[in-house]
Design a protein that fits this description.
Elements lengths: L1 E7 L5 H10 L3 E4 L6 H10 L4 E5 L11 H10 L3 E8 L2 H11 L21 H16 L3 E4 L5 H13 L6 E8 L10 E4 L20 H8 L2 H23 L4 E8 L5 H13 L4 E6 L4
Parallel strand pairs: 1-3, 1-4, 2-3, 4-5, 6-8, 6-9, 7-8
Helix pairs in contact: 1-6, 8-9
């Protein structure tokens, strides 16, 4: 069976992700206690259900410690298991809770029975949740939704469920330093010192996927040298991540605006590694 476990920080978009996979034909279950995961999968297998998506988060906080072992057991039984973890910056989460006027799920468990002055703040609840879910995040494919529209999140979730079940998926992601470093990055490379097409009025409205920008950057010796260094670094260390049983590795490339240099570098690296690895591409600042 194809199994997608969806977890993450409250307010980061788990309901959006669950709706996407439900539309894709997955049998979906929200807020399943992890102790019931094996029983549910056995039942769905007997019923001939080919694909299931299960949302598990801090609403079952006391039951999460055994989840990594449950994932390993399911894989050993021959099931194809992916873990998707959604996160966002604390600032973004606070703004979202403020807009919806909803309380944080942990506030019901961590202090509503206390005196008002002793209750945890929203920021403290978010930090507590990060700590509770840290064991799941390290084995998951992480998406930072801080600056994502709902439509872009839907597209990225579709990419995750469409890739094959390989030992490791290599993700290349472009971003803008002026917005901030994405939380989902395992490695971050800064290409802001490279020649910038932004200063050419003809190239400014284009992106690193457009041929004029590609030709401009190809002609810059520094760009090719940076590409070679990053490519060699990844090639050297990728086998070690595979031996460590990592399922996902995200390499983030950043420039000032996330439009030209970082996009070009991500596309070039992805094209190189696609010949031997399962590769996904994300551009945070492009539509």
């Amino acid at each position: 069976m194809d199994i997608l476990l969806i977890s993450g920080i409250s307010g980061s978009g788990k309901s959006v992700a669950l709706n996407v996979v439900e539309d894709a034909g997955y049998y979906c279950v929200d807020n399943l206690p992890p102790s019931l995961l094996a029983e549910l999968i056995n039942t769905l297998t007997r019923e001939g259900i080919p694909a299931a998506a299960i949302a598990i988060d801090t609403r079952s906080a006391n039951l999460l410690t055994g989840l990594p072992d449950s994932i390993n057991t399911l894989r050993a039984e021959g099931h194809h298991v992916k873990v998707l973890f959604l996160t966002a910056s604390t600032e973004s989460l606070v703004a979202r809770f403020s807009e919806t006027r909803r309380s944080h799920p942990l506030s019901h468990r961590l202090g509503l029975d206390k005196e008002p002055g002793d209750r945890l703040s929203l920021t403290e609840c978010i930090q507590e949740e990060r700590e509770i879910l840290s064991g799941i995040q390290v084995v998951a494919h992480v998406i930072d939704t801080s600056d994502l529209s709902a439509n872009k999140l839907r597209a990225w979730v579709k990419d995750v469920i469409q890739v094959g079940y390989t030992p490791l998926t290599l993700m290349f992601e472009s971003f803008a330093f002026k917005i901030g470093v994405p939380l989902d990055a395992d490695f971050v490379f800064d290409v802001r010192m490279l020649p910038n097409p932004h200063y050419d009025p003809v190239l400014r409205p284009l992106t690193g996927r457009d041929e004029p920008v590609i030709q401009y950057l190809k002609e810059q010796a520094m760009v090719d040298e940076m590409y070679s260094d990053i490519s060699q670094f990844i090639s050297k260390w990728l086998p070690a991540f595979k031996r460590d049983n990592r399922s996902y590795l995200t390499v983030a490339i950043g420039c000032t605006g996330g439009q030209h240099r970082s996009v070009y570098m991500v596309e070039k690296l992805a094209a190189h590694f696609k010949a031997q690895e399962q590769v996904l591409v994300r551009h945070r600042r492009l539509s």
